[in-house]
Amino acid sequence: MEKIKFTKMHGTGNDYIYVDMTTNYYNFDPADLSRKISDRHFGVGSDGLILVYDSKTDAADFKMRIFNPDGSEAEMCGNGIRSFAKYLYEHRLTNKKLLRIETPAGIKAVELVFKGGSIWGAKVDMGEPILEGSRIPVSVDKSPVVNEEIAVDSGSLRFTAVSMGNPHCIIFADELTDELVKGTGPKIETHSLFPKRVNVEFVKILDSSHIELRVWERGTGETLACGTGASAALVACSLNGKTGRRVHVRVPGGELQIEWAANNHIYMTGPAEEVFEGVYNYQT
User: Fold this and answer.
1) Are both 58 and 120 inside the same structural domain?
2) Domain hosting residue 231, numbered range
3) Are residues 212 and 111 part of one domain?
4) Catalytic residue among 9, 164, 180, 226
5) Is 169 in the active site?
6) Which of 165, 174, 269, 278 has the most CB atoms in a 10 Å sphere around its CB?
7) How far is it, in rounded angstroms, from Cα 219 to Cα 38?
8) What is the pLDDT of residues 89-148, one digit of tens each?
9) 158 with 214, same domain?
């Protein structure tokens, strides 16, 4: 049995288990650990596992690996990286307030945001959106992939595809119902149009600078928030002429501020919270 020290954190309700691999040596299969520790009945309960490593490149300070509850590895997590930066600072792994974090989706710059002398959250440079169909990837040979048709069951919907280092399918709706999110979401996640599966965002436009969002995440299911999904949603809203390039995104877990800046980078600002620490008894 391996006794693994962990910290549970969340960003707008998108919760993850953090394990420090910089000062500890644990012998576990990360995919297996994520499946077990993420279970909300038999484990700790989370939207996934995030491992903290020192980066082996001079271009980054630390390295982040993310595993979904089904054991698959994700490329990037916007909510997870905000809590990652807060974890590093508050657990005294760094004294930097501007960090460069290595992820499978590239190196991301994260600036801690302080309120009242303590860390409230972070602002993340999410990078440039990827709009070429082959790079998202989606089986539509266009750039951008905007307002395309997707067949679901006996009907069809219109979608816009964006990658923020991980693939997203954005669908606009008048109402964000459980039938749509939980019923249609998993069918789109595994649709043949998306060779690496896809995260699905359902967006309701409130006005030119406010949207409401519900997300069906690849390998996870519905989550209370998704930072890359909120970023992709803004890009889709702008490409379809539904909002400007700066929006407040209302998610079930709170609110995120997303901006598509003049340099073509997406910037996301939102809170991060530590929930508790513990020790998990891992058995293979």
Assistant:
1) yes
2) 133-264
3) no
4) 226
5) no
6) 165
7) 12
8) 999 999 999 999 999 999 999 999 999 999 999 999 999 999 999 999 999 999 999 999
9) yes
Which secondary structure element, helix H or strand E, spans residue 186, and what is its range?
helix 185-189
Average pLDDT value over all residues in the chain: 97
Query: 218: which DSSP letter?
Result: T
Distance CA 79, CA 11 (A): 5
- Cα separation, 103 vs 76, whole angstroms: 6
Q: Facing residues of 173 across strands?
A: none
Q: Is the pLDDT of residue 24 over 90?
A: no
* CA atoms 137, 126, 261, 172: torsion sign: positive
Task: Give me the CATH number covering residue 198.
Answer: 3.10.310.10
Instruction: Kindly report the number of other CB atoms within 10 A of residue 131's CB atom.
Output: 18
Rounded Cα–Cα distance for residues 152 and 148 (Å): 13
Orientation of helix 227-239 relative to helix 78-90, angle to 10°: 140
Dihedral Cα 35, 41, 47, 49, nearest 10 deg: -40
Same domain, 143 and 89: no
Compute the C-alpha angle 253/93/274, nearest 5°.
20
- Token pair 């679901």: residue: 152
Same domain, 175 and 249: yes
The three-point CA angle 207-111-266 to 5° equals 40
Same domain, 250 and 156: yes
Check if the beta carbon of residue 195 is closer than 8 Å to that of residue 137: yes
Is 275 in the same domain as 232? Answer: no
Identify whether the C-beta of residue 98 lies closer than 8 Å to the C-beta of residue 124: no
pLDDT tens for each residue of 244-272: 999 999 999 999 999 999 999 999 999 99
Active-site residue (options: 77, 188, 225, 239): 77
Q: What are phi and psi of 122, to 5 degrees?
A: -160, 155
**pTM for this predicted structure:** 0.93
Question: How many domains, the chain?
Answer: 2
Contact 145, 53 (CB under 8 A): no
The answer to whether residues 260 and 137 belong to one domain is yes
